[in-house]
Amino acid sequence: MKISAFVPILVSVIFLLVIPTSCEKEIPAIIKRTDNTAEIKRLTLIADHDFDQNEYLKAYKNYLTIIHLSDPEKNRIDYVDALISIALIQLYEGNYLESEATATKVLPQLKYLKKPRFAWETYKIISENYSATNDYDNALIYAKKAYNLHASPRRKANALANIALVYMYQGDYKKAIKIYTQLTTAGYYGNKKKTNSLKDYEALDYAVMRNNIGISYANLNDSRALPYYQEALKIRLKLNDRQNLPDSYSNLSDYYLSSNPALAKKYAKTAYKHACVVNTYKQKKYALETLIRTSTGNDIKKYSKIYINFRDSINKIRLTQKNQFANIKYNFTKDKEENLELKIQRAEHKLEIQRQKNRSFISYIALSITIFIFVFLVFYLTLKGKREKNDAVFKNEIRISDKLENDLEKDIDETLSFARNNNLENVSNKEQFLNYLSRIYSKMRSISRENSTIQTNENYSNGLKEMISEYSTSNLNIIINGLNTFSWSKIDRVKKIIVYRVIQEIFDSMKTLNNASLVSLTFKKEEKNIIIMYADNGTNITLKKTILEKRLQNVENRIKTIKGTLNFDPYSENGFKVNFKFPI
């Protein structure tokens, strides 16, 4: 063995022998955690109460503290509940990107939680965020994920109702009507309705579903909308559902807009009256819009002026709240970093004291090191090939993850600084701020993907297909051929991880460097080799050839670890093409 290869082995051996033998007392001093369970429980009660009272700023601050104090293993339920609550607050405040990023942090914890309600809440939040940003395809995926959980009958029914709601957003009103009708005439809600056993909060859900049937019929210009509107209104009046009464009256106003303008105006005024009582943005905005639609002459000017002033005041309030949330998060992060620095200093001081005590033991273990080196070298040379192969597999994952995390921390600081120092009502500043948020969201998604666990069991092909589908957008279609034409179970686990990461890195590269609208990914088995071919119809890849070659060098290094080869052609007239193969 060369001397250069022997040095790191010697250093490793010294650490292996010195630390376990003579520094056993210093390890607990470094990793010891304070038990904050009692404080976490106390803060959770306070935060939950503030959340229920719509005191979101107070709740938000306490939930952040809970997350900081929690051990994600020991206090996992409180930790996950706090993340879900923060994601809900961000959703309610219209911070959809931050809400999705927060909800994504829950996903790695779900496999440790037996109760499906955590997954149900998380998928529901992510679905609603996608709906709010008009990404209905992804909204439908997560709504269906919530439905497929083994949840309680009521959650199961509500998940199906969420699927119907996405269909409404997509304009597929017939599908929505079919699902809502099924829910309210059979199953959980239908059966309870038949036996008059609906509890008040269940009756409110039932009214929402019946009202949504009416909305769907109205959008289809079908007069059958009216009885559903009337039924929902009757339930809401009986239960004094102040939150949803404005919408019922606004729906009826729109229904009678053409056939009976006077009645439409009456319902619009009633809707606005109730909306002013609850004073929520969505209901008040809809009520004012119906008033404007049903008004004539000076009334149009009157209500239009009220509407404009209302929108301006809401925008100012939302901007103030957004700045308040940003300041809370910034101050909390700053305090957390200062506390962490103090803890590190104390730990280093304890470590230095312990090292002084341990120096006297070094002379006694010198002989043991010499003997151990010879034993270790025999073992090392035996496993050297396998260890180098595994190290190469995960080397790029660590590099990419560290880079993304460092970049993300820098981007967050820049975004918070920009929000504090600039007027976000200015259009250009607002767009710049949204660009910052979009960049942070993109990098967080990348971190999540890079650190996610890869299943190498019988579900490998499904996981691979799902990962590829995540790159599909309204502007990019992906065609997958031959994925299941051979058995993945016969392929080595390390090779499957390499394939997964190689495909992921190719798509990541093409997402940022190419303008393709169609991608084809083909899997073939030829004799004892697997061949995977990527092709797209992009046109501007040659302009960024240097960057692409550098990225594909990482891909090629991965392939070589499993004795594979890679070929690519950036100059193709029909787009960019790359293929690689490896032995089974």
UniProtKB/TrEMBL annotation:
Pfam families in the record: TPR_7 (PF13176)
Keyword Transmembrane (UniProt): yes
InterPro entries: HATPase_C_sf, TPR-like_helical_dom_sf, TPR_rpt
Coiled-coil region list: 330-359
Transmembrane segments: 361-383
SUPFAM superfamilies in UniProt: TPR-like (SSF48452)
Keywords annotated in UniProt: Coiled coil, Membrane, Transmembrane, Transmembrane helix
Keyword Membrane: yes
UniProt protein name: ATP-binding protein
Lineage: Bacteria, Pseudomonadati, Bacteroidota, Flavobacteriia, Flavobacteriales
